[in-house]
Amino acid sequence: MTSPDTPTPSAAGASASGGAVRRPTGTTFTRWLGAAALVGMAWLVLFGLVLSPDDALQKKGVRILYIHVPSAWLAYLAFIVTGVSSAAYLYKRTRSLIWDRIAGASAEVGVLFMGIALVTGSLWGRISWGTYWTWDSRLTTTAFLFITYIGYLAVRGLGGSHHQRARRSAVLALLAVLEVPLVHFSVRWWRPLHQQESVAEGKLDDLMLFSLFVGIVSFTLLYVWLVLHRQRVLSMADAVDDKGLDGALAARRAEQEVSS
Amino acid sequence: MTLVAVARLVAAKDLRIEWRSRVVLNQVMPFAALVMILFAFALDNDAALTRVAPGLVWLAALFSMLVVVQRSFAVEAADGALDALRVAGVRSDGIFLGKSAALALQLAVLEAVLLLAAVVLYQVDIGAGSIPLLLVTFVAATLGLSFVGTLYGGLASGASGRETLLPLLMLPVVAPVLIGATRATEAALGTNGASSSEGWPWVGLMVLFGVLFGAGGTLAFGSLVDE
User: Fold this and answer.
1) Is A13 a domain residue?
2) Please, what's the b/e burial string for A179-192 (b: 16 or more CB within 10 A of its CB; e: otherwise)?
3) Which residue among A181, B89, B108, B175 is least packed, with the fewest CB closer than 10 Å?
4) What is the Cα–Cα distance from B126 to B119, expressed in whole angstroms?
């Protein structure tokens, strides 16, 4: 993001062969965004580790929440974005590969943050509930979502043309949207007697809430930054694919001309 | 041709292949029985086995189903048969419904054998009063499973290296059926003192699941298998 080159809006006309032209994925906007995310992270460290007080019950354990809650929020946001972009791709009037790339980039970032949310959540659970895991519907649904989107990313890697990949993965993402509520409700029915853990609820003081808020804002900035960059990298990878095919065709034609 | 006619032809084709090759009968059923025996080794307790028998029946059904689904699409992938069907202009929703129907029939036989194995191996008692709920549960669960199996089986067939995707894609989706079918079977059999009235809401969930994935699969199948 600190590359000195002037950004080019389109990646379709990649550099001519030979010259090592650098094509940064950053633009002025994403540079500001990245800087803002960095500042937000510094604030989060300051508020989360230094300024906010210990919790009466959880002591220092409460500080995990400043990472856990923003990660979980982002993970869900990311999957909503994936679902919406997939629908936008499938809808004929808005069909464009950019939706497919946003869906893919968002799912990748979402899987990362969901992994962080699950790990920090179980560490926090160990501290405040005394157990790494409970069969709570929210936890179980999150774990299912995590695995479902790992599968989604695997399907994205199956190959085929760009539009094949886009259609296949968009349909799969919408099927996941169908699946997740069903899993959620069936797990809730499955263990109806389980009480929602309420240790953390209602006892946050203002500084804690503010730290949480800082975390959510700066993680969201980071998410947007990551998705924009990843989306541009994916678009370049697609362009390289296309170019590779064109190059192979041209080479084969040249061969034919020589032999004839 | 109408949707139903296409579906019936495709289903008949799949069942004829099974009738002549007997792969499910000679390979998958012994595998399913083996899984039931292995569960007994792992749990090593008669009382525990009887208590968790409904869950084990459905877990074994899921594992065996993976093999049946793979088989169902292996016969299509072998000579590019699925592509040939599509090129010939056979409607993909008809293929989906036909393959689902054939899969459902094979699964139903498999599940009946698994239930029988539970009666013999795990000392499960089936009273006459439990039969209606049991029957409805098996039908509802089988429908949902076969729709999802066909949908994701189609996606995970074709090019090499995709077969390993099937369990990863399919098992999370059918988790509600595993929960629902297990609970409804427990209710039907009276396991852990469950009463049969507790089973009907679960049947409702499975019917909803079947309807959603039946409709979703009919719409989506063409996009997922399109090469």
Assistant:
1) no
2) bbebbbbbbebbee
3) B89
4) 8
Nearest to B165 among A154, A179, A186 (CB): A154
Range(s) of the domain holding residue A68: 29-192+205-240
Beta bridge partners of A59: A55
Contact B64, B25 (CB under 8 A): no
ipTM: 0.88
**Residue pairs spanning A and B at CB distance below 8 A:** 69
Token reading at A64:
């995990």
User: What's the total number of domains in chain A?
Assistant: 1
For the stretch B161-203, pLDDT in tens is: 677 889 999 999 999 999 999 999 999 988 877 787 888 999 9
Q: Report the alpha-carbon distance of residue A123 to residue A131 in Å, rounded.
A: 9
Burial category of A111 from C-beta neighbours within 10 Å (exposed 0-12, middle 13-18, buried 19 and up)? buried
Chain A interface test: which of B86, B148, B169, B205 (most A C-beta within 10 Å)? B169
In a domain, A113, yes or no: yes
